[in-house]
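Case study B.
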Amino acid sequence: MLSEVLRNNLNLTGTKEGCNTGDCGACSVLLDGALVCACLVLAVEAQDRSIETIEGVAKDGKLHPIQQKLLEHAGLQCGICTPGIVIASRALLEKNPDPTESEVRYWLAGNLCRCTGYDKIIRAVMDAGATMRGE
Amino acid sequence: MQSVQYAAPTTLAQATQALQGASDAKILAGGTDLLVQMKLGIREPGLIVDIKRIPELTAFTLGEHGLHLGAALTSAILHDDAQVRARYPGFMEALGLIGSSQVQGRCSAGGNLCNASPAADSVPALIVNRAVCNILGPAGERSVAVEAFTTGPGKNCLGSGEILVSIDLPLPAPRSSDAYLRFIPRTEMDIAVAGAAVALTLDAAGVCTAARVAIGAVAPTALLVPAAAEALIGTALDDTALANAAAAASAAASPITDKRGTAEYRKKVVGVLVRRAALIAKARIEADS
Ligand SMILES: Cc1cc2nc3c(=O)[nH]c(=O)nc-3n(C[C@H](O)[C@H](O)[C@H](O)COP(=O)(O)OP(=O)(O)OC[C@H]3O[C@@H](n4cnc5c(N)ncnc54)[C@H](O)[C@@H]3O)c2cc1C
Ligand code: FES
Ligand code: FES
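Model:
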């Protein structure tokens, strides 16, 4: 699976493994720009395709607004779900820069978090959206 | 997992050839059913034929004849097309209910149909839209109405070496719309306890001139329920007509009892869903005209 190759062969361990069956979203990556679970992609399917992982989100040592806001809003505890949340919510904000709270909640329904209770994550993503819109 | 061969043909001819050479081949579209089943040990194919590099399988066109949908096109890409969403709101809401944003980035209507789960969300919506499945196999091309495609839980009408190439949804008549509703115990990420799709055409006075009703998760396959449609045609969708359609849908259902609900409960719920979906389709037509 792509998740195993990323983590075990390429040492890109930011992409997490939770359920391994497409339910938890911890392994979220972009494959040719599409948000997918890396645990449900054969590594060989990714041949000649572009893959974006959490490792590429912060640029030049500067956190992405979503990462910054997750810290400010205490939107993470153990952090296992966090890379997947960042990848998924960044994909949402690029498509829909001003989502409603319910759009954020539905979009992130496939990103399970056992620690935070979600509210802080949702607030952080909404706030990051506002920052990215220059508000 | 055992060692598995992988082929990624770029033409349909190569794909059919690859499938003919191997008795234990499986087609891979988005893999959101197949790869999960392989991990669970339910399926152990010797050859995986990935059809996503065949251009016509991941393309779609919307024109005067309707929507021509490559079988392996992902839900996410189709969902980004505002015109498709406007023409087939019920089909698109059914497709949009499958899994999460991540699942949507991979899954296809073709995969949903071929996997043949009785609870597959897009199938009732395809049925009410009179969708036709275009199939290519060793003996050539053939087309099958979508309600005849699934033959039982996990079973479809494809013969050995056959591929579902595309799905055609005719363009809805003027003053027509559709809707799909499912019942799940949660608000997202669950499998339907019952599902219902309704497509309607209304005349200028609001009288229903054509209807299709299909139900899911309450029988071995999704079912077209002509008696429910007949209860709606010729009426203004008044309470009596809706109650008759609901009763016809409940009568057509033959659900099982499992952890998601008892048979009796599912029969009742599917009728309620038919009534509500009909009202949503009606409201959509009124909003458009
Ligand atoms: C977390 C999660 C949540 C889910 N939630 C839902 C849900 O709410 N509702 C729902 O209906 N489903 C759900 N599913 C199931 C699945 O996502 C859908 O059935 C999906 O549409 C399958 O499409 P796919 O392209 O991924 O199919 P694949 O897994 O690639 O294929 C499915 C089957 O069809 C065959 N096949 C695929 N394409 C073709 C073709 N063109 N010709 C011939 N055979 C073909 C494959 O060999 C395989 O047996 C969920 C899955 C996951 C992992
Ligand atoms: S590890 Fe991939 S979705 Fe859970
Ligand atoms: S912070 Fe622990 S799972 Fe989300």
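Residues 92 and 103 of chain A are 9 Å apart (CA to CA). The remaining cases will be described in the next quarterly update.
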